[in-house]
Design a protein that fits this description.
A hairpin with a 5-residue loop joins β4 and β5. This protein has a five-stranded mixed beta sheet. It is 54% helix and 15% strand. It contains six helices and seven strands. The chain is α+β, with helices and mostly antiparallel strands. α3 runs parallel beside α4 and α4 packs antiparallel against α6.
């Protein structure tokens, strides 16, 4: 074998070795993500399950001896925990699907009324709005339609709305707005604003990644899986849109999440 042939063999072997190292590194990252996912999912699912079990046991043990108002409170808290379980399970199923597929594709893109969509989201979170005595402010023009997958867009808006409720105090308002823009295309921007803790600018890019929760939230009673915003970003991008946040990070000034999607004809 001459020198040129030896050089080719050596180069090929080096490339194969590098590819193998890269493949091994990716496998290790996947294993770490799976471990992190299982730990996060099991912890987050256990918390609302324990709450539901606890309230049911209290109802079974004390029954009619409990005052009517306290029974109502226990049932409301058990229902809230069940609703949280549904959101968590949806996120778990979505993250599993996202990890299995190279990409994600909307089931069905169609013309969706923004006004009707926001109304359906408000109907889903109505119990919590009532319990926390929230004011909801709407500025949604009539006959404003977007091109989207209705079910997946509803899931994204519920995720964002539930976050707005979780990270802002009771009795503070939630604001839903929508506007048409005609800059380099025809789009609609849907915005959800709260008056909560806000998110500092240096943390805003991170919150749309997998399993990311701010340190202040990890050490607080507020529960979360760190998956909702990541899934929301993937779903919105699959619908040819984008999602971002505006916030000063000053408590009380809150956050505004924006979703931009193509306007329907």
């Amino acid at each position: 074998m001459n020198f040129a042939e030896q050089a080719v063999v050596a180069l090929t072997n080096a490339q194969l070795y590098q590819r193998q190292r890269e493949a091994n590194r990716r496998l290790q990252e996947v294993d770490q993500l799976k471990d992190q996912f299982m730990m996060t999912a099991s912890h987050e699912l256990r918390t609302p399950l324990t709450a539901v079990q606890g309230y049911i046991e209290l109802m079974a043990q004390y029954g009619e001896t409990l005052p009517a108002e306290q029974r109502k409170e226990f049932l409301q808290k058990a229902r809230r925990s069940c609703e949280e379980l549904v959101v968590l399970l949806d996120n778990v199923m979505d993250i599993s699907r996202l990890e299995m597929e190279a990409g994600i594709h909307p089931v069905h893109l169609d013309s969706v009324s923004v006004q009707a969509m926001i109304t359906s989201v408000l109907n889903l979170i109505e119990p919590q709005l009532t319990q926390e005595q929230r004011e909801v402010h709407l500025d949604i023009p009539a006959r404003l339609n977007i091109r989207a997958d209705e079910g997946q867009l509803r899931q994204v808006l519920v995720n964002i709305s539930v976050n707005a409720l979780k990270y802002s105090p009771p009795r503070s308002p939630i604001v839903f707005t929508a506007r048409a823009i005609f800059d380099h295309g025809r789009y609609v921007v849907i915005s959800v604003r709260d008056r909560g803790l806000g998110i500092a600018p240096q943390h805003q890019a991170r919150i749309f990644k997998r399993f990311v929760r701010l340190e202040r939230d990890i050490n607080s009673p507020i529960r979360g899986s760190g998956l909702g915003l990541y899934i929301s970003r993937r779903l919105i991008e699959a619908m040819e849109g984008k999602i971002w946040i505006e916030s000063s990070g000053v408590p009380g000034e809150g956050s505004t999440f924006h979703i931009q999607l193509p306007m329907a004809d």
